[in-house]
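Subject: sequence -> structure tokens, single chain

Hey, anyone have a minute? Need the predicted structure for the following. Not urgent.
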Amino acid sequence: LNGDERPDDDEIFAVVSSLKKIAYFHNCHDMSRLNIWEGLHENLVASWEAVREDSIPPLPMEAVKYCIDSCFYGLLWSIVPFQTEKDRGAIEHAKVMLQDHMDKYMDICQKIISDCPEQSWKEQAFAAVGDLLIYYGSGEPIRYTPSDLLCETINTFVQEYVFINDTDEEIDDHQKIEELHKRRNFLAGYCKLPVYRVIPTEYGSHVLQHYVTFYNDFGDIMKMTLSRLRDNHKVNCAKAMLQALILKFKSLQDEDNDIDRNGEEFHAIKELAKRFALSFGLDAVKNREAVTKLHRHGIIYAVEEDPEAAASAPPPRLAFLELVTEFTNKLLKQDKKVLLDFLDKRIASGVPSSRSEAWGPLHMYRNSLVHGEGESMPPPPKKAYQRKRRRSGSDEDDDPMDEDFRL
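Reply:
Had a minute. Here:
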């Protein structure tokens, strides 16, 4: 636009209609020979900057959505040269161009998702990012690894726009169903990322923390996500469960790190822990390493001392042991004894004789390890666990594809 000129309705319609046609054609046909990707991307960036600064964007608001779509389709069609070209130089050039375009597109999409007042742009960008990460996250023809910032951004989007309590009475039932369907699509698009190891399993825990609270709306999606994560790697799945419990536990702590163990919120977390424990099934041998590591990491988190507290005071997160207790019946007898020794060594001041309420979770957990042995399955033959060397990729090691997942 030049000067103070303002487009009329016909001109706005023409621009929107043209970009809409480009997006639809781009969906079905390879238009890379027209070299329009850079121009579409520049308009997308300029529109985001204008909206962010509360000025007039170079394109109508609706047209920007089609820019997002067209750039997305252009990146999908970028795989064609790798399937048709035989010249090594041309293939290398296509690889460099694809990597550059992916970096530019993911950068602007991350900015739109995290800092854009236009909700429709956010939703379009979120869907595009999820699909591209699946498409180019496998390593062929390029391996695009999302940054930590991008992972945090899409996780924040899911927390803010999927896991919400829809209590608006002014919205009719038909509209509520449509909104729920849209939120389910967002959640499914996010969950496939840790399932296919495009982002670390850690980010699955941010979804699993809502397993009980939003079970009616998204229970089938979260249940399948949990199952697929376990199929990928049992130990990392157990860590994701524990991290989900930690996230919910932190949300209950007040400024003094106190927890109301008799409150409804804490009982809801215990119910979440029970659901997770049931998901391990009855085969304690198969899940041995995963369950044992869950207990170990849970103990470490729960008994960490507060350096500013009195020596005789219980650790501020001791109540977390009450949640870990839900997984005790999944332990083998010999592992309970090992964990009992591990617990006692982690208590800096020693196991207190006091039976005060503050130390209650510790005594509850210790009793489950000491007196719950009869519920365990008999130990497997020793021969099954005697190996001269570890198999590469066994569940006893952290997943090499998920090295960023650390508790």
